[in-house]
Design brief:
single chain, 7 helices, 72% helix, mainly alpha
């Protein structure tokens, strides 16, 4: 549905469905890396999804539109919006060095530690579909030629600052996963009632 959806907020919302699937898959493996990856994915997903919804809110505020066909070349003159949306989209697609890559890698690898490797293969194929609709989203908004969308009202500074900070956090979480990873490694066994 995300591949054909035109409402920018719905496209982002549909991506949550696949991300929740990754989390449930990791939990279902009952492996250490699956549980750790799922826990990290919940945290990373919250950061990246907040970033993408801030970007969508910024676009809607400035154009008054939500249909992806009506919002074209919105990045023209909006470098920060373009950078933040691309960072959020690429992170959602699982690109290395961004927040969601580390947790997705742990979840996918946990699937190959079980006897049901075919499910892990299906999960990886699902991630390819996720990358496809995210790249479509970014491409249609910023890079495919079309009629430029006029600005109706400028987004407030608070929206721009929040969006920029979330983008920076997404990059930091990707490059420096160790602090959060160490926390999860120590806390998840306690939640589950023992040590591994």
């Amino acid at each position: 549905m995300a591949l054909v959806e035109k409402d920018i907020k719905r496209i982002i919302a549909y991506s949550s469905i696949s991300q929740m699937g990754y989390i449930l898959f990791g939990l279902g493996t009952l492996t250490v890396s699956g549980l750790m990856g799922s826990t990290l994915h919940v945290i990373y997903h919250a950061i990246v999804k907040a970033l993408l919804f801030c970007c969508a809110g910024w676009m809607i505020k400035e154009t008054g539109k939500r249909d992806i066909d009506d919002i074209r070349r919105i990045g023209r003159g909006r470098l920060l919006l373009t950078i933040c949306t691309v960072i959020g989209g690429l992170s959602m697609a699982g690109v290395p060095a961004l927040a969601l890559f580390n947790s997705e890698w742990m979840i996918f690898s946990s699937g190959f530690q079980t006897p049901y490797t075919i499910l892990a293969v299906v999960e990886v194929l699902g991630s390819i579909l996720s990358a496809a609709y995210i790249l479509r989203f970014i491409g249609l908004l910023f890079f495919i030629p079309g009629k430029e969308t006029p600005t109706e009202e400028m987004a407030p500074l608070s929206v721009k600052v929040a969006t920029g900070l979330l983008a920076v956090l997404t990059v930091i979480a990707g490059f420096f996963p160790a602090p959060l990873f160490s926390y999860v490694v120590n806390e998840v066994p306690l939640i589950l009632g023992g040590r591994w």
